[in-house]
Write a structure and sequence with these properties.
Elements lengths: L1 H13 L10 H4 L11 E4 L2 E5 L11 H6 L4 E2 L7 E2 L5 E5 L2 E2 L4 H10 L5 E7 L13 E7 L6 E12 L3 E13 L2 E23 L3 E25 L4 E29 L2 E29 L6 E24 L5 E11 L2 E15 L4 E24 L4 E25 L4 E18 L10 E19 L2 E12 L10 E5 L2 E4 L7 E12 L3 E11 L2 E12 L2 E12 L2 E15 L4 E20 L6 E7 L2 E14 L6 E10 L2 E3 L2 E3 L2 E12 L2 E8 L6 E7 L5 E7 L4 E11 L14 H5 L3
Parallel strand pairs: 5-8, 24-28
Antiparallel strand pairs: 1-2, 2-7, 3-4, 5-6, 7-8, 9-10, 9-40, 10-11, 11-12, 11-39, 12-13, 13-14, 14-15, 15-16, 15-17, 16-18, 17-18, 18-19, 19-20, 20-21, 21-22, 22-25, 23-24, 25-26, 26-29, 27-28, 29-30, 30-31, 30-32, 32-33, 33-36, 34-35, 35-38, 36-37, 37-40, 38-39
Main location: membrane
Organism: Chryseobacterium pyrolae
Protein name: Outer membrane beta-barrel family protein
């Protein structure tokens, strides 16, 4: 149930920017660019936002600062997105910090913004980055200070929406000569409240479900990095990351209206489905890193070995009871009991070498290998209480994956105005799955091997000090997550459920982008993406006969759904006015989509349904603006006014109606203390409504309200020696695998 709701929320979120994998040593070596007057500019393959020149950087968090960054936005105060991209992957000094959305948001909200020197936005990552699909990268560059000592920060917050949600976090950094230690811990409570309406049907049968969802979450997590410089040329480091999520007594309460045409008479039946779910998950990883500098120009070798363990325990009880038209319940009719645990163990190694030459030529090459084993021992039991009929469906599914990869990247500064970068990545993927107790032989001994050659090209032309033009082309793959290939159903009701698909194959994405920047303030981005065998979750529905009546069945099936093209156009600017009392960035995006998908068969059962077709062409508009206003000359009082808007937009579940949000905040800085308050969605306009009428008469309607009007209050305190830095950051060899545990 939660997976379905999360999908719809994510789908509505992906389009606001038009819009947990790992990079290599080459990206960690980022040449310092001194920005004195221009806070925002284009350099080679990335946009650079000089945080040190921004008057609003002090006394806030990294997450809040990222939301103020041009081309970056957030719809839900949890996930960050880049204009024209499906996802924003976070790096710190070239190191991927891969957590789930809640953990990553807590981490970024606990990190003080004073530690940041600049933010790099890479809309088209090069071959050295091991990212998927159309992901963009936000690379956070920390300040480099060399003094020994101890410092840290403490932050407490309280969010008041439908429920009250407190949170806290602290971080410490210690450096003594060759030894560097940094650590953090975060905890939070986040109980989500949702109200939604789901309707689907045809001209002879229909379902309507309406009700509430309450999802209580408690999160605890942190990290520990120990870095030791063996000598002036080599270092060794050990990193440990952990996160624990506890979600007990999650409740979904739905009142269902079922209409069916019996001969010429319509019959209406009412019932109520209540689902109780308990979930807890653990994510632990350890990474060992060795780095060797091979010359004085900055060349170096980087070796990584990592182990990842992800474990989730989840069970649910869904009870359907008879009801009258007013929602009053009677006897229980049926029950669905589900056990859906998952265990993932992964081992990964990477080798990267970054070579610099004297003639402004840079070459990087490397390879990676990962072995991942997934164990899904799930079971679903359906009980018809009135007849005593019980159906038990065990599913013990093992999934093994081996990935071999290698890349070569060459970057050349041709002149003071022209630079070029080209690369190629090769990936070989070997998959093997086995559902030991499945009745369908097709689910046993699944084998799929495929290889991909992924090119990359970037050309940058600095016409003069006021004009910069660049072009990029990239090929990428998107693999399904480990949960999506597990052949299991997650039930909303007995006839309405989410169904995974082990037969999905990786999707290929080919992207190109043209960027123009004027006076380091105004920018224009035009992009095109072609998705082949795009991975989507499609509503497949039809009519079955049950007890002499027609019943409408709806299955949200994960599958490869044809091809898709996207054309993106974004214009915007980042400016300061009135001697930097007012800082603003504005972006306006237009997107044109061409969809070409069709499915009429359940890939697991082979059942035929009326074809679900999405061959629509659609246009959409997005508007985003962030404004920070300094209220006093001493730079201690600040106000913020932020707004985003999404017009009508076509996504895979249908037509998304307009939505938006207005946020207002106030911040006070007093010595090492910062006090902040923000009100979200003041106009109460952030509501996802999706319509999907089909030509064959079927229809699907989704209406979700997440109670987004909220007040957030926070207090933070920075202590200790402010001139401390972490010795270095390093890549984690299991970063890409972590992202697919979601």
């Amino acid at each position: 149930m939660k997976r379905l709701i999360h999908l719809i929320i994510v789908l509505s979120g992906t389009i606001v920017t038009a819009q947990e994998k790992k990079d290599t040593t080459a990206t960690k070596k980022i040449n310092e660019i001194v920005l004195k007057k221009n806070k925002f500019q284009r350099k080679n393959d990335r946009f650079i936002y000089d945080v040190g020149a921004s008057p609003v950087a002090k006394g806030t968090t990294v997450f809040s600062l990222l939301k103020e960054t041009p081309l970056v936005s957030s719809m839900d105060d949890k996930t960050l997105r880049i204009a024209g991209k499906s996802n924003a992957v976070i790096y710190i000094n070239g190191k991927k910090n891969q957590m789930d959305a809640d953990a990553l948001a807590a981490f970024l909200k606990s990190m003080p913004s004073e530690s940041i020197q600049k933010i790099e936005i890479i809309t088209m990552p090069g071959s050295e980055f091991q990212v998927e699909s159309s992901d963009g990268i936000i690379n956070i560059i920390l300040k480099k200070i060399t003094e020994n000592g101890l410092n840290g920060s403490l932050r407490m917050s309280n969010n008041q929406g439908y429920y009250n949600n407190p949170g806290m976090g602290f971080s410490i950094n210690y450096r003594k000569n060759k030894l560097g230690i940094n650590s953090s811990f975060n905890s939070s409570e986040n109980t989500k409240r949702q109200y939604y309406i789901l309707e689907n049907g045809s001209n002879i049968a229909s379902n309507r479900s309406e009700g509430t969802v309450s999802i209580p979450n408690k999160d605890y997590g942190g990290y520990l990095n120990i870095d030791y410089a063996l000598n002036d040329k080599s270092s060794i480091a050990l990193s440990y990351n952990t996160w624990y999520n506890k979600n007990f007594t999650s409740v979904t309460n739905l009142f269902n209206t079922v209409n069916a045409l019996n001969d010429t008479v319509w019959k209406t039946v009412y019932n109520r489905s209540i689902n109780h779910e308990n979930t807890q998950s653990y994510n632990n990883s350890v990474n060992l890193n060795y780095e060797l500098k091979t010359d004085s120009l900055g060349s170096k070798l980087n070796l990584n070995a990592a182990y990842l363990n992800f474990s989730k325990k989840q069970n649910s009880l869904n009870t359907t009871s008879a009801a009258d038209s007013n929602g009053n319940t009677g006897e229980d009719i049926s029950q669905i009991i589900q056990q859906t645990p998952q265990i993932i163990n992964s081992f990964s190694v990477t080798i990267d070498y970054f070579k610099k030459f004297k003639n402004d030529l840079t070459m990087s090459f490397g390879g990676n290998y990962s072995y991942t084993k997934t164990d899904n021992n799930t079971e679903t039991s359906l009980y018809q209480l009135d007849t005593g009929v019980a159906v038990r469906n065990p599913n013990h599914f093992f999934y093994l994956e081996n990935i071999y990869g290698g890349y070569l990247t060459v970057e050349k500064k041709v002149s003071d105005k022209i630079s070029a970068k080209a690369g190629i990545r090769y990936e070989l993927t070997q998959n093997k799955g086995n559902s030991y107790n499945a009745q369908d032989d097709n689910l046993k001994n699944l084998t799929r091997n495929y290889h991909n050659i992924l090119p990359y090209v970037n050309l940058n032309y600095s016409i003069n000090k006021d004009h910069n033009l660049s072009y990029s082309f990239s090929g990428r793959m998107k693999r399904p997550s480990f949960w999506e290939v597990n052949p299991v159903r997650t039930y909303l009701t007995e006839t309405n459920y989410v169904q995974n698909n082990p037969f999905m194959k990786a999707s290929a994405v080919y992207s190109q982008e043209l960027n123009y920047m004027f006076k380091n303030s105004y920018f224009f981005i035009a992009g095109h993406k072609y998705y082949k065998d795009v991975i989507l979750q499609i509503p497949l529905q039809g009519i079955i006969e049950s007890n002499g009546s027609h019943v409408n069945v709806l299955r949200y099936i994960r599958t490869n759904f044809g091809n898709r093209q996207e054309f993106n156009f974004t214009i915007g600017f980042q400016k300061s006015f009135f001697k930097q009392y007012w800082n603003t960035n504005v972006s306006i995006g237009l997107q044109h989509n061409i969809n070409d998908g069709r499915i009429d068969t359940d890939p697991l059962t082979g059942e035929k349904f009326p074809a679900y077709i999405n061959s629509r062409k659609s246009n959409g508009i997005t508007i985003s603006t962030n404004n920070n206003i300094r209220l006093d000359q001493a730079k201690t009082w600040f106000a913020s006014i932020n707004y985003w808007y999404v017009g009508n937009y076509q996504i895979e579940l249908g037509q998304l109606r307009p939505l938006g949000s207005l946020e207002i905040g106030l911040k006070k800085i007093w010595k090492d203390w910062t006090f902040a308050a923000t009100v979200y969605d003041i106009l109460n306009t952030n509501r996802a409504i999706i319509d999907d009428p089909q030509q064959n008469g079927n229809y699907n309607y989704v209406n979700i309200y997440n109670y987004p009007r909220q007040l957030n209050i926070s207090i933070s305190y920075n202590f200790g020696n402010k001139k401390i830095e972490k010795i270095r950051d390093f890549n984690n060899a299991s970063d890409e695998i972590k992202n697919r545990t979601k």
